Every structure is written in structure tokens, then in C-alpha cells.
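Notes from the 1:1 (GR / supervisor)

We went over the backlog. Supervisor wanted to see one worked example end to end before approving the batch request, so GR pasted a single chain during the call. The sequence is below; no edits were made to it. Supervisor asked that the structure be written out right there so they could see what the output format looks like.
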Amino acid sequence: METGRSSCIEKLYQTYYMDVYSYIMTLIKDASLSEEMTQEVFYRAMKSAFQGKSSERTWLCAIAKNRTLPGIQTSKILCFQGWKTCRFTWPCIN
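Structure output shown during the call:
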């Protein structure tokens, strides 16, 4: 059973990695952080269950959006408040 789940996640990863990475890259425009967040998305997908209410790609991009937007909002607030460094912060990553 676990082998079947692992191969399913591996197939998702191989199929959708670039889609998820590209989506995150358009949001945060930082290659290193985009790679890190993409890994986080697939980790979260591995821990949750796909319910089939959307396409797999849409599901993964929704996870990406939900993991990425809090960091973007925090960054915009820090930049708006006049901080000299406008680096993305990711308080949502455990």
C-alpha cells in the first residue's frame, strides 16, 4: 500500500513539478525560494488526500497559493513600512 502511494506521489512530482515551480516563481520571483516552496507543496500533498474535486494540477497550485501568499503579504507589509530589506519571509513554513 505504501509503495503505491509513494509511486503516485513520485508520478505527481514528475508530472507537475515545473507547473508548480513556475506558478510559485510568478508569485515570488525568486528562484531559490520557489524551489524551496515547490518542495514544500509536494510534501504537503504527500501528507494530504486528493479528493478529486479538481484536477491534480489545480489541487497542487491551490496548495502552492495557500503556502505562498502569507509570505508575500508579510513581505509587502514589511516593505510598505519602510524596511530597508525587502526579503521574503516565510512564517508559514514549519
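Supervisor's comment: Confidence is low (pLDDT under 50) at residues 76-94.
Batch request approved.
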